[in-house]
Amino acid sequence: MWRARRWPRPRWFSSDTAAVGADSGNPARRRVAALWGNGDHGRLGLGALESRWSPTACPFFLTRPADPPTSLACGGAHTLFLTEGGRVFATGLNDFGQLGIGSSMPHTLDPVEVSGFHEKVVQISAGNHHSCAVTADGELFVWGKNSSGQLGLGKSAGKVVSTPRKVDYLADVRVKMTALGSEHSIVVTEDGEALSWGAAGAGRLGHGHKSSFLGFAMTSNEYTPRLIKNLDGIKIKRIAAGMLHSACIDEKGTWKIK
């Protein structure tokens, strides 16, 4: 008789795990990742395709307590994990290279490490079919679907980039934060400036629009990062991206939605 596999009960912190250092008097706290929802394509990283109705601990990280996950990002059908040591892992659908592990595997059931970063990664984001990572020195790496220029690599870049590539157009700034929408991307620099690129439909990039002869709004996709000029002089602290819209908070705590 078939029985559903029982995974460990999720515990975000465990105080009963022995400390690594022999001379440490305090017990170590162990951090794990828990996931739930639709399990198609292995997006939950639980080693199976089944969906989960409640939070389930990821077995992959339970076996690697020395470098626990500190943050994660959920895309359309893939998930990214960032560990304490600055390493990136990905699981789920890989039809557009959004996992960053090349194009040979259509999907993965367990997290696989994403390589190609020359520095420790400090932040990750996941869009519908694209992904990005910010390194400790403020450089941005991108990969995945690029049909609308959402990777910011220029018009000559391919429609799919299956391994991390640095965005050279941001070489003069230090990226602090990122947010990915369905087909667009936004970053905030260390100086509080916001730049966006990718699909421009519905005004999601915040660059305004032109009117056609018949009065219809006209927008053009951006293939490289472009400063959002109507936020000039405003220091941005937080950004967010939805499927067709974007938002930010300035240093005074004011919302601005595009």
UniProtKB/TrEMBL annotation:
Q: Superkingdom, according to UniProt?
A: Eukaryota
Q: Which Pfam families match?
A: WD40_RLD
Per its UniProt record, what InterPro entries does this chain match? RCC1-like_dom, RCC1/BLIP-II, Reg_chr_condens, Signaling_Regulatory_Domain
Q: Which residues are in coiled coils?
A: none
| First and last residues of every RCC repeat | 31-85, 86-137, 138-191, 192-252
Q: Which residues form the RCC1-like domain?
A: 35-254
> What's in the keyword line of the UniProt record?
Repeat
Q: What PANTHER family does the entry give? A: BTK-BINDING PROTEIN-RELATED
Name it: RCC1-like domain-containing protein
